[in-house]
Amino acid sequence: MDIINQVEQLFIQNKIDIFLGYTELDGHLIPHGFTHENLDELKELKVSENRYSLEKIATHLSEKDPDLKIGMIARDCNQRALNLLYTWNQLNPENIEIVNVNCCPSPLKRHSNCSYLEPKQSGEFKKEHGIDYNADPDSLMETFNNNERFSRWMYEFNKCIKCYGCRNICPVCFCTECSLEHASLIEPGT
Fold first, then answer.
1. How many domains is the chain built from?
2. How far is the CA of 152 from the CAs of 20, 36, 40, in angstroms?
3. 102-125 confidence digits (pLDDT tens)
C-alpha cells in the first residue's frame, strides 16, 4: 500500500480529521493539512528530505482543539519529538496517527542512521558517529565542569543574533514565554 492509500484509509476509517504532510508550491515543498473535504488534494502529497516541524503544527492544532485527531508523516526523528511531546502532555498519543517514512540521508554522517528507537541493525559498512545513546548522561556531564559548560554555552550564545530560528524550528518548543526574548539573559551577538 502506498502512502496516499494509507492516508485515505485513515480518513475512511475516521481515524483522523486532518493529515499533516507536504505539498509542492512554486517548486518548494511546504507543510500542508489534508482534510476529508479536500481528499482529492492527496494526490499532491509529497515526501522528501525536506524537514519542517509538523510536530509543532500538530501541537498548535491540538492546543486549539484537544479532541482533533491528527495524522502525520513521521521519520524516526519526528517520532522522538512526538514521544517528548506525549511525555510533556502537549499531545495526546491517542489522537495521533503516524505514517512512517524513511529517514533522510544526512550529509554529515555518511552511511549513518539517526534512529534510536530500535536496536541497531547495521552492516559493517556503517561507521559509528557521535555518542552512545545508551550512555549514562551523568557520566557525559562529568566530562566538563560547570564553568566549562557555561563558557561553552556563552560562546554559542555570543553568536546569537536573536532571529529566533532555533525556537521556531524546534519541534518540542512549547513555552508560552521564551527566555531567549530577555536581553538581560542572552544578549544578541554581533
1. 2
2. 37, 49, 51
3. 766 555 444 445 555 444 433 343
Indicate whether 189 belongs to any domain: yes
Residues 57 and 136 in one domain: no
Residue 81 grid coordinates: 519529538
pLDDT at residue 17, rounded to an integer = 98
Could you list the residue range(s) of the whole structural domain that residue 172 is in? 131-190
Phi, psi of 50 (to 5 degrees): -60, 140
C-alpha to C-alpha distance for 28 and 81, rounded to whole angstroms:
24
Q: Which of 67, 60, 73 lies closest to 20, judged by CA?
A: 73
How deeply is 123 buried, as exposed, middle or buried, from its count of CB atoms within 10 A (0-12, 13-18, 19+)? exposed
115 inside domain: no
Q: Is 6 exposed, middle or buried (0-12, 13-18, 19+ CB in 10 A)?
A: middle
**pTM, full prediction:** 0.71
Q: Which residue has the higher pLDDT, 19 or 146?
A: 19
b or e along 92-118 (b: 16 or more beta carbons within 10 Å of the residue's beta carbon)?
A: eeebbbebeeeeeeeeeeeebbbbeee
Q: How far apart are CA 22 and CA 46, in angstroms?
A: 5
Residues 153 and 91 grouped into a single domain: no
CA-based Rg of the chain, rounded to a whole angstrom?
20
Between β-strands 28-35 and 18-25, what pairing exists: parallel, antiparallel or unpaired?
A: antiparallel
Q: Within this chain, do residues 136 and 79 fall inside the same structural domain, yes or no?
A: no
Residue 181 and residue 188: Cα distance in Å, rounded? Answer: 10
